[in-house]
């Protein structure tokens, strides 16, 4: 199979559009470091483009018809956006689905401790990470604290130039003879991922004076008391904005590409396709990094129940119509793929690895080993995708996530396939996936947007 670097295709108009999309995405990635923040940003964009909250449609008793645009939010951490097309039952929908959670450190519910006059936040890591990568880098804290009186306090500290940052300490090399002999997964233990948040004692305080000073600051600044951590969702993430990378500025270096680099162009593709014949759906969910579980993950009934409400507002709800609608859908389950890295060449099958800069990635085989846990897309569906991508001049490639027996993975595709719809994994090649800072190509972001928009014309 002949593959071509997408950069070689571009004229000045293409480059202008590529740079504009990249700049907007850098802002989104920098401002949306949690699933809640991503949801808020996407809702703000949707409302600016005339989308209505489905809850408001239901409360007002309004109906839905072709041309209407609505969105639905699940607990502030998952989102659906819909452009209503024709005959949603028999035509189904074209769904662009991805996740908006990323690996991180979560604060435990009793997180604040003091040891040897350092104040710490005790954390529990979320998703698959190499724990040693998270020490001695600047960290920010994002999230919400919900108080008993119903007040919700939003937290985002460590991002502004004059904000303090936080960090996890490491053992100096001079004393690390035993440490550096350990296996990589044992160099830093999970319980050692405690974030240092202060070292100044509160004057005249005898018991835990540094912790007392932190509690004073939290009370004065945010109105938060120690017990409020019980009802908080606070995430420790790398501090700082995403950046252009390379002398040629061809790449984007930032936290949370997995999987916001697919979810963002998916959302933009839906926003930019208001007059579709087949209903367009953007589906952005939480908890993929830990198995798509819980009330805000793909395994919840959010998607299915939202479609019940949509069909009801269209005056065509029945369980049979719902089943037909979902069965007749087509989906791109958008998630990142591991970009071929020549420094770790033995981890990949070079001919079946995704290459940075070569466009949108289709991954027919997910899972691991003997395709355990795989969603294996049908050849007929792939043929349709090939045609629509070629007809719209989209650069695309096929790949597997690493060499056979070297690992593997998947995303939410297998869950949606349970409805009988056609589903394939697709996305963007990422270097250093699941590291605190990951890298993608601007060209791949642009081709993903083009590909997702083309898909909505099926």
Description:
- The protein has 458 residues and is α/β, with parallel strands linked by helices.
- The chain folds into two domains: 6-101 and 255-455, Zn peptidases (Aminopeptidase); 104-238, Aminopeptidase i, Domain 2 (Roll).
- It has helices at 12-31, 35-48, 54-60, 88-91, 184-187, 209-222, 257-271, 302-313, 319-327, 379-391, 413-417, 442-455; strands at 52-53, 69-74, 78-83, 93-99, 104-115, 118-126, 139-146, 152-157, 195-198, 232-238, 243-245, 251-254, 279-285, 330-334, 337-338, 360-363, 367-368, 396-398, 408-409, 422-427, 429-430, 438-441.
- It has a nine-stranded mixed sheet with strand order 1-2-3-13-4-14-20-16-18, sandwiched between helices. A six-stranded antiparallel sheet has the order 8-7-10-5-6-9, with helices on one face. It has a three-stranded antiparallel sheet with strand order 11-12-22.
- It is globular and about 70 Å long.
- The model has no long low-confidence stretch (mean pLDDT 95).
Q: How many structural domains can be distinguished in the coordinates?
A: 2
Beta-strand fraction estimate? 15-25%
Q: Uncertain spans, ≥5 residues at pLDDT below 50?
A: none
Oligomer: single chain
- Kindly provide the radius of gyration, computed on alpha-carbon positions and rounded to a whole number of angstroms: 23 Å
Sheet of most strands: 9 strands, mixed
Structural class: alpha/beta
Q: What is the second-level CATH architecture of the largest domain? A: 3-Layer(aba) Sandwich
CATH class of the largest domain: Alpha Beta
How far the N terminus sits from the C terminus, by CA atoms, comes to: 25 Å
The rough form would be described as globular
Question: DSSP helix count?
Answer: 12
Query: CATH homologous superfamily of the largest domain - what is it?
Result: Zn peptidases
Helix content: 25-40%
**Overall pLDDT metric:** 95
**At the third CATH level, what is the topology name of the largest domain?**
Aminopeptidase
């Amino acid at each position: 199979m002949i593959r071509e670097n997408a950069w070689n295709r571009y004229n000045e108009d293409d480059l202008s559009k590529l740079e504009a999309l990249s700049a907007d995405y850098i802002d989104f990635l920098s401002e949306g470091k949690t699933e809640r923040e991503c949801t808020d940003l996407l809702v703000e964009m949707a409302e600016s483009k005339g989308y209505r909250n489905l809850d408001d449609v239901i409360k007002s008793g309004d109906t839905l018809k072709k041309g209407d645009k609505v969105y639905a939010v699940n607990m502030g951490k998952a989102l659906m956006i819909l452009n209503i097309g024709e005959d949603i039952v028999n035509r189904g929908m074209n769904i662009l689905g991805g996740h908006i959670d990323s690996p991180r450190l979560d604060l435990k519910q009793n997180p604040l401790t003091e040891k040897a006059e350092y104040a710490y936040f005790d954390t529990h890591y979320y998703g698959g990470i190499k724990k040693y990568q998270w020490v001695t880098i600047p960290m920010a804290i994002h999230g919400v604290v919900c108080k008993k009186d119903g007040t919700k306090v939003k937290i985002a500290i460590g991002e502004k130039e004059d904000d303090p940052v936080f960090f996890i300490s490491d053992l100096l090399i001079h004393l690390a003879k035993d440490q550096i002999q350990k296996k990589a997964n044992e160099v830093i233990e999970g319980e050692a991922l405690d974030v240092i948040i202060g070292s100044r004692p509160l004057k005249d305080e005898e018991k835990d004076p540094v912790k007392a000073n932190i509690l004073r600051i939290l009370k004065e600044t945010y109105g938060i008391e120690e017990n409020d951590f019980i009802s908080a969702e606070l995430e420790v993430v790398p501090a700082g904005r995403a950046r252009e990378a390379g002398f040629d500025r061809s790449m984007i270096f930032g936290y949370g590409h997995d999987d916001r680099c697919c979810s963002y162009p998916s959302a933009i593709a839906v926003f930019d396709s208001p007059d579709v014949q087949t209903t367009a759906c953007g589906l952005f969910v939480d908890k993929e990094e830990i198995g798509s579980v819980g009330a805000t993950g793909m395994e919840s009934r959010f998607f299915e129940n939202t479609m019940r409400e949509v069909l009801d507002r269209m005056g065509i709800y029945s369980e049979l119509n719902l089943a037909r609608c979902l069965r007749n859908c087509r989906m791109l389950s958008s998630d990142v793929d591991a970009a071929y890295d020549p420094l770790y060449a033995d981890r990949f099958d070079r001919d079946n690895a995704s290459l940075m800069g070569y466009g949108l990635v289709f991954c027919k085989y997910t899972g691991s080993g003997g395709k355990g846990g795989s969603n294996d897309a049908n050849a007929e569906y792939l043929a349709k995708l090939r045609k629509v991508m070629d007809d719209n001049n989209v650069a695309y490639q096929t790949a597997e996530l690493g060499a056979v027996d070297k690992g593997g993975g998947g995303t939410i595709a297998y869950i949606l396939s349970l409805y009988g719809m056609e589903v394939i994994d697709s996305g963007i090649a990422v270097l250093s996936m699941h590291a605190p800072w990951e890298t993608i190509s601007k060209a791949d972001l642009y081709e993903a947007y083009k590909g997702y928009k083309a898909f909505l014309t099926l």
